[in-house]
Write a structure and sequence with these properties.
alpha/beta, 252 residues, binds phosphoenolpyruvate, eight-stranded parallel barrel, single chain
């Protein structure tokens, strides 16, 4: 039995056509199951309204965004405001995914602005942290994560801290097929929890990095692993359902 509610979060990244989305939900609806954990999906932002409509009829999946702007409104062509996301009834937003940090040069200082603005609009925020392989090999895992937490989470108002979720995603494990062992992940999750200055015992800390139906169970057995942020294995209904089924079992 887990202390905190298990969350399985699918990050669809820049994938899925309308046809694939419809196939995903048709297959999901055929696989009847009683969800005891939370199942969340972050599609491309353009698909949020469609997924929200489907989720409304199925009633079991919450929808979020993969990124948002640090600005509320104005002349920022191509950006998506957290205000607009909140207006659309979006449940959560992922901020600081390693692909945003590495491909788009987003630093923790910028991510802090996004975190604060998203929280202001009452979006749940999944703030991602994680070390590269070079940093792990140089024994810098804990210092890198501590700095990402300290900078990215500064100035969060105490009354909004309950909306924060952390995802530990070692960069070397994302999309590579290499998962951190459950012990490696738990060591970092426990460290993260000691560094949270507010709501530490209740804050969800998700693990991400090549999570699949065949490795999720051992991860969820760990005390400080409260669920998973999943890329590749969240794209197909069969695997996503299997992950949710493991999440549900872990809740019992
Ligand atoms: C991710 O994108 O957050 C992720 C963990 O991807 P994958 O599961 O494919 O490694």
């Amino acid at each position: 039995m887990k202390k905190r509610e298990v969350h399985i979060v699918g990050n669809w990244k820049m994938n899925q056509t309308l046809e694939e989305i419809s196939k995903f939900f048709i297959e999901m609806s055929k696989m009847k199951m009683e969800l005891k954990c939370k199942a969340w999906i972050a599609p491309q932002s353009i698909h949020i309204p469609i997924l929200k409509e489907i989720a409304f009829t199925t009633g079991s999946i919450q929808i979020g965004a993969q990124n948002c702007s640090e600005h509320e409104s104005g002349a920022y062509t191509g950006e998506i405001s957290p205000l607009a996301l909140a207006d659309m009834g979006t449940e959560f937003v992922i901020i600081g995914h390693s692909e945003r940090r590495m491909l788009y040069g987003e630093k923790s200082e910028l991510l802090n602005k996004k975190v604060l603005l998203a929280l202001k609009h009452k979006l749940k925020v999944i703030y991602c942290v994680g070390e590269t392989l070079a940093e792990r090999e140089a024994d810098q895992t804990f210092s890198v994560i501590e700095s990402q937490l300290n900078i990215g989470l500064q100035n969060i108002p105490a009354e909004l801290a309950h909306l924060l979720i952390i995802a530990y995603e070692p960069v070397w494990a994302i999309g590579t097929g290499k998962t951190a062992s459950a012990e490696q992940a738990e060591e970092v999750h426990a460290f993260i929890r000691t560094k949270l200055t507010m709501n530490a015992d209740k804050t969800l800390i998700l693990y991400g990095g090549s999570v699949k139906p065949d490795n999720i169970d051992s991860l969820l057995l760990k005390e400080n692993i409260d669920g998973a942020l999943v890329g590749g294995a969240s794209l197909g209904a069969q695997d996503f359902r299997a992950l949710c089924s493991s999440g549900s079992t872990a809740m019992m």
